[in-house]
Design a protein that fits this description.
Layout (H helix, E strand, L loop, with lengths): L8 E6 L1 H4 L9 H15 L4 E6 L2 H4 L3 H4 L4 H25 L4 E5 L8 E2 L2 H9 L3 E5 L9 H11 L4 E6 L20 E3 H7 L6 H9 L4 E5 L5 H6 L6 E4 L1
Parallel strand pairs: 1-2, 1-6, 2-5, 3-4, 3-5, 6-8, 7-9
Antiparallel strand pairs: 8-9
Helix pairs in contact: 2-5, 7-9, 8-9
């Protein structure tokens, strides 16, 4: 591994919505392929990469029906949506030569391994990209919380949250072009200001374990590598 690499083991959190690209929902092939290439670029440097992906791009297409459902059923549907995205990412990564393993919090033995912490760490040590799906396996917890939980369990150095914007802003930059981007924030500032980095459970879990979070624009080519190399990209959240 190059001495210039800042992080040895990362957990990359991708939103499901980002996989839809320019579409309202579903998976856009061009975006999927770009993300796979970004991951390969850092994996080739010797960085151990784990992934957690949301399910909004799949679930959004059926969200109107979900309004009539109870929260538990809707959450389980969302977990299954993350499995679809995980399999799509796995396929895209393997097509460009990466060894991968998908692990699910809900047992689905025909399509993925169950989540086993020691096995996941062993895969990472062998240079395989590990994709964690189905959230925590429990309703009422977001994929952001699942990402932090898995990152803590595998002893990741950092959580990299890939988004469609450059970092964390005072307001939504799409609505207010004058919104200011933060270079760095503390966990408590995120909670007190109600900033949309991750939900409060995820932030609290990160704070308790002193796990830094970097929010950056995954759509910008080469950004993932720049973050791993220690460049000032996006917004860093830490104690």
């Amino acid at each position: 591994m190059s001495k210039d690499i800042l992080f040895k083991r990362i957990l990359l959190k991708l939103s499901g919505e980002s996989l839809s690209g320019e579409n309202k929902f579903g998976i856009e092939s061009k975006t999927l392929q770009q993300y796979a290439k970004e991951v390969k670029e850092v994996a080739d440097l010797g960085v151990q990469v784990a992934l957690v992906v949301g399910g909004g791009n799949i679930f959004r297409g059926i969200s109107e029906a979900a309004y009539e459902m109870d929260r538990v059923s809707a959450d389980y549907m969302g977990m299954l949506a993350t499995v679809i995205n995980a399999l799509a990412l796995q396929n895209a990564l393997e097509k460009i030569g990466l060894n991968t393993r998908a692990q699910t919090a809900i047992p689905m033995n025909q399509i993925a391994e169950p989540f086993i912490r020691r096995r996941a760490i062993r895969h990472l040590e062998k240079g395989r990209v590990v994709i964690f799906a189905a959230g925590t396996g429990n309703p009422y917890f977001t994929t952001d919380t699942a990402a932090v939980l898995r990152a803590v369990e595998i002893e990741a150095d950092v959580i990299l949250k890939g988004t469609k914007v450059d970092g964390v802003y005072t307001e939504d930059p799409v609505i207010n072009p004058d919104a200011r981007m933060f270079d760095e924030l503390s966990y408590l500032e995120v909670v007190k200001q109600g900033l949309r980095v991750m939900d409060s459970t995820a932030i609290t879990l990160s704070m308790d374990n002193q796990l830094p979070i970097i929010v950056f624009n995954m759509g910008e080519k080469g950004n993932l590598k720049r973050v791993v190399m220690g460049e000032q990209i996006g917004t860093k959240v830490r104690g």
